[in-house]
Specification:
- The structure is a single chain.
- By secondary structure, the chain is of the alpha/beta class.
- The protein contains nine helices and five strands; from the N terminus they run H-E-H-E-H-E-H-E-H-E-H-H-H-H.
- The protein has a five-stranded parallel beta sheet, sandwiched between helices.
- Helix 3 packs parallel to helix 4.
- The longest helix has 24 residues.
- The chain is elongated, with a radius of gyration of 18 Å.
- It starts with 5 loop residues before the first helix and ends with a helix.
Length: about 200
């Protein structure tokens, strides 16, 4: 484990390290990923070289995140992401050597929250992880508020529109915009959908 500055270790002491399962069939790349994650204060719970075991490890450990390659033996990353998403085990970030639209579409349909194109640096990987974890929390919050799938989809579309308006007009980041909607809904005892509808009507 690399040395940490006093500030970093202080931050890690305040909250438990976020946990990750890593699935990558190339051992050297896997080593690099694990090193980057540990340097950034994540705890790597388990590693594997195939998608099938990644799903099993996600079920066993319930990590905060699953980070995995798209092209792997036994089961590829997209299929594994679909199963992890279906079982609501953890947010998934996919690693890919390609950024073709078709692949990105398949990854999104499978429920991947973000993807990173190889070769990547910590500056590519860590923001993608933050976005994935933030989006996953947002979806869970929306799910707990709305029961039917159709309503969830409609609410999500509305909240996404409201978020992009807040990002543009108020200069907020995506997680800040979502927290603003969530806090307003709690403060005013309104659903997030009602808050989003108001924003879409008023902020144009």
């Amino acid at each position: 484990m690399s040395e940490q500055t006093p500030l970093e270790s202080e931050n890690h002491d305040q909250q438990p390290a976020r946990t990750v399962v890593v699935a990558e069939d190339e051992a050297l790349i896997r080593l690099d990923i694990v090193e980057i994650l540990k340097d950034q204060g994540f705890e790597v719970l388990a590693e594997t070289d195939n998608g099938k075991t990644a799903v099993e490890l996600a079920e066993k450990h319930r990590p905060d995140l699953v980070l995995m390659d798209v092209k792997m033996p036994i089961m590829d990353g997209i299929e594994a992401a679909g199963l992890i998403n279906e079982k609501e085990l953890a947010p998934v970030v996919l690693l890919t050597a390609f950024s073709q639209k078709e692949l990105v579409d398949r990854a999104t349909e499978a429920g991947a929250m973000a993807y990173v194109v190889k070769p990547f640096s910590p500056n590519d990987l860590i923001p993608a992880i933050e976005v994935a974890m933030s989006r996953y929390e947002q979806l869970r919050a929306l799910k707990s508020e709305v029961s039917s799938i159709k309503e969830q989809f409609e609410t999500r579309k509305l909240v996404d529109r409201a978020k992009s308006l807040l990002i543009t007009k108020m200069g907020l980041s995506e997680p800040e915009a979502f927290r603003w909607i969530q806090k307003t809904s709690m403060d005013r005892r309104l659903s997030m959908r009602e808050v989003a509808e108001t924003i879409v009507k008023q902020v144009q």
